[in-house]
Amino acid sequence: MTNFSDALPDPETTGKPSAPVEPVLRVSNITAGYGRSTVLRDVSIDVPPGSIVALLGPNGAGKTTLLRAVAGLLRPVAGAVWLGGAEVTKLAPHQRARAGLCLIPEGRGIFRNLTVRENLRMQVAPGANGTAKDGTERVLTTFPVLRDRLGQTAGTMSGGQQQLLALARCYLTSPRVVMLDEVSMGLAPKVVDEIFSAIVTLASSGVALVLVEQYVNRALELASRAVLLDRGTVAYAGPTRDLDEAAVLRGYLGVDVDGVPPASPAVGETAVDADQSYASP
Amino acid sequence: MLPFIIAGLTTGSVYALAGVGLVLTYKTSGVFNFAHGALATVSAYLFYTLHVEHGMPWPIAAVVCVCVAGPVLGLVLEQITRRLSNVSLAIRVVSTVGVLLAIQAIVVIIYGTTETRTVPQYFPATEFHIGGAVVTLGQIIIFAVGAAATVALYVFFRVARTGVAMRAVVDDSALLDISGTSPTGVRRWAWIIGVTFASASGLLLVPFINLDSITLTFLVVAAFGAAAIGAFRSLPLTYLGGLLVGIGAALCSEYFTSGLLSGLSASLPFVVLFVVLLVSPRRWLAERTAVVRRDRAEWTAPWQVQGSFGLVLLVILCLVPSFAGIHLADYSQFLAMTILFLSLGLLVRSSGQVSLCHVTFMAIGVCAFAQLAVNHHWPWFLALLVAGAIAMPVGALLAIPAIRLSGLYLALATFGFGLLMQYMFYTENFMFGSTGLGVEVPMPNFPALGLDGSDKSFYYLCLVLTILVTGIVIMISRSRLGRLSRALADSPRGLATTGTSVNVTRVLIFCLSAFLAAIAGVLAAGAIGQASGDSYPPIQSLVYFALVIITLGGAPWYALTAAAGLMIVPSYLTSANTSNWLQVIFGLTAIAYAMTPPRLQGMPPSVAHRIDQLVRRRPAGARRPSAAPRPAAIAPQTTGGSLRARDIRVRFGGLVAVDGASVEAPPGRITGLIGPNGAGKTTMFNACSGLITPSRGLITINDHSMSRLGPAARARRGLGRTFQQMELFDSLSVRENVELGAEGGNAGLNPVRHLTSTRRTRHLVQNRASDAIARCDLTELADRTVGSLSTGQRRLVELARCLAGPFRILLLDEPSSGLDRAETVRFGEILEEAVAERGIGILLVEHDMALVTDVCDYVYVLDFGKPIFQGSPAEVMSSPVVKAAYLGDDEVERAATAAAGPNQEVSL
User: Fold this and answer.
1) Contact residues on chain B for A102, CB-CB shorter than 8 A
2) What is the ipTM of this complex?
3) How big is the A-B interface in CB pairs under 8 Å?
């Protein structure tokens, strides 16, 4: 298996004394949900510029909800979102997109009834046409399979091709932060490889990435930081190398790797203490 | 024939233009603009005022109408409809209906109805000779405008950025938002263009017709007909549809000049609309916007307050003949209209179905009654009842679009039906006849009962009948049918899984409503003694609908308020324009109501609280459980059933979601179905429960094939189900939800059992509900409204609903989603107890592995739609194949390739 993270300099180990760096994306104390159910409770995350953050957690933990709240599709009950030092909590999604925030949603974020060319056209905000041409060239060079299909209706392409089209937006708009929500879902492993190499190319251009992946190993290979969500709260936030894979599995499957279920929480026992039980010994 | 075709092409182009604008606004905003024709009316009257009254040259007047008034009105409508994405269908409909009512009434107020106005043809009168027929320049210009506008729009959608953005906003507006383009801005342009098209169509049509407020307003129905042919989706087909409707109507006026079919020409658009709605394949007309549920029980005043208020009102009503004088007939009509609003409320407020033709049911009742009582000399009361009965099959016929399609199409079908009746049938001899005198509606004459044909005795008869109908409606709302009706409004899918045939429920309620409306019609006409077709214009149905939505209170208060506003106010304020001003007020109130966010609607909480305090009633969420003895908890006597799904294959277009999976869930055991996201678990589930038809494979319960049965039928054969996005009846209490689990199957397909149940059945239902509630630890919450509970509690309510019913096998779809660790553990315990005590079988789709290892006896694992492993939970958890599937290692590729076979490529 290709070790993608070798391709990237690890910001944590470059050895320079770290001056306090303004995170390119900061989420502070977000509480959000749908209707009456609260999904996220007091979630805070920092994304340093140029880094890759893996956002992990079992289903129902709130990963997609968090990305939607950051993108502006969901209004949080409490909390704030900061992009590049400016607060964007009150901005509409299209305004956040123009400020440099790019969300690739789960489930093939493309317009199925439009052609590939029209999809590429819609992926850029209006008035940005000056940079569009170079961006389109870059996209078609990175994903040559799209070049032959410019006139094809997007919904008739295969799942992998659709996902590549969805990713094209990151190349067209020169964002500062890209959030990827399960981009490998439902795709065959060979296609997943291609997508991940595109992600690495993206990261090498200095864009910060937030990666939600069900395939934990892949995400951890790529990322320098990991955030583990458990039922709406942050259970771990720190460098990937301090994360213990067995413990992550336990969080996902609720069982130890050898099949022994964990002890049921005793009455009155509080939630898992962050930074402790997920760190390797 | 050629002249008629040419004329047809001309009017058809106008219909097409209007239809294209209508489809554009509907597709982009999800709101169907009932006021589309009213906007054309505004344009036409504006043109008349500028060009004919003030002498402005016609090109300038035309530019003002189309390029100024059109866009301005478009912006107004965009503002009104902007916040309607999360409201119920009835409110979405009432928003544009309100615009229609307000515009139509304002036009009448300003211009009156006595003077006949016409706009002379403003295009140059040059004539051409084509194939022996005369074609004027005007006709050619109209055809050219229609064609050019449609072509321009088609090109616009493909070339201009905003045009492509409009198609994108229809496809996925959230994605457009995060891509940097504001969907609101795009929709604004769509409304501007759509309404401008409507203005243009009004302008083009006006030289051919007499200028009045109604004709152009109902141009919208011709546009509907065109839009229906275009399946409300395709612009080129809509254009073609408009031309076809125009030509068809012209040919009908050539060939059908007398008899019943002479009205066909004017009513062809409605006929087309109706026929298309009845016969089109369901998937063509799938409504894009999702069903929105009510999540809060409406506040109702305490019974002491309602009772005392009612008593006072009753005394006043009994004394009316002593002070009414010449207004007595109006008071009788007020009572009749109360019955009408009660019938409409039964349909719209209780079961959430939108009907826009209630005045037509009144007309049908009156004509049937007149035929029976006057022409055939039947006794008065018998004629009354039979007249009501005659309206029922009509109601059933109209309910068919509701069964096949969704609520909006029922609204359209009923709207078109009302117009169809007016144009084609009102002048028939079996209805009002063509003399214009109408029919005679006598009062009853039974001196023995005190009915001597006087206004006073008739008034008291109306009062008695109103009280009777109020009693019936209240009884229905407390009966099984009332429960089924509220459940239907909250969640038709949830109701189907209890075993009720939802179609029977819908049709039954529609028939009851039609019956009562017909009786109300007879009483209202009887107060005056005669009725003609002019008394039942279809626009009145829209007024009734708006009133029923905007009036506050439960039955019968909203009906009394609405009837008073409609009948009593104009009776005392007798200026010529009173009813028009009232209509303006109703229309504007309806618009304002639609724009209010849901949490601000209804009685303000401070007022409600104060009234509650008057009688010391606790707030709805925290009422102490009633002191009545709790019914004994008795579990249903069921033996377990086994579910077997063999070799299931499900395709969605080119995608194979499930490929050859087989699952068996035996009785007395809990079986698990797991797999990563996108593995096909929920698809498999939906195939088992009947929501999807697999392209291959067999599903059996106890070895009986379920292949052709829908969800309700499978429920009746013992299959219970919960949903990942819970399908609960949020405005009902916990107990009512759970009881429906037991009741639904009993109601089933049988209309009589929909209405009522025996005392014994009711006891049985209550006992089973108590048992299920106790099992699921919900006893404390049994009287709380489900909408106010937490996710964990709601999941338990859905489970309790399954346990209360006679289900032998349960399908549970991610039931622990949203539950915390402790709740999940308790959930598992409840499942195990239920299985151990009753021997039912359970098939569980889950992501929570702790729950799966805890309770499942056997587990199937899917990945990419294919089965990759099965075994005991311990085996599954330690299998490297399963681990790889979840962690995404090379194992997956090996396992997938192995499953696919040596020669098959794993394609991109």
Assistant:
1) 178
2) 0.85
3) 167
